[in-house]
Write a structure and sequence with these properties.
mainly beta; OB fold (Dihydrolipoamide Acetyltransferase, E2P); five-stranded antiparallel beta sheet
């Protein structure tokens, strides 16, 4: 069953998140967490550490290394399980209860390319 559509928003709200393409350079375990892994992501002009709750969602987390994906890069840093996260990964499916997949560009684009 498909979830109902959320209420309408104004177009200016979509301009607030800074969504960019980054290449996942490494995936590391976060020892103090049952869910979190630490991604090191290259956005061209800067590198960020982004914590993602994807432990147990894939047989081999290393399979996403080298892949591009979409990330929100203008969230305030947040400490989780003793680590600092500097953004958020966009994935598809989690909210609908399916195993999430990465939101990825159709073709390779320069790291740091903005969505929207």
């Amino acid at each position: 069953m498909t979830a109902s559509v959320k209420p309408d928003i104004s177009l200016d709200i979509l301009d607030k998140p800074d969504i960019r393409v980054g290449t996942i350079k490494s995936v590391e375990d976060v020892a103090k967490s049952d869910k979190l892994v630490k991604l090191t992501v290259d956005f061209g002009d800067f590198i960020r550490t982004i914590l993602v709750g994807m432990k147990g969602e894939r047989d081999d987390l290393k399979e996403i290394e080298g892949r591009q994906a979409l990330f929100v890069v203008n969230l305030a840093p947040k400490k989780m399980a003793g680590e600092i996260s500097e953004g958020m990964l966009f994935d598809i499916g989690y909210a609908d209860g399916i195993i999430p997949v990465l939101a990825q560009p159709e073709n390779t684009v320069p790291n740091g390319t903005r969505a929207g």
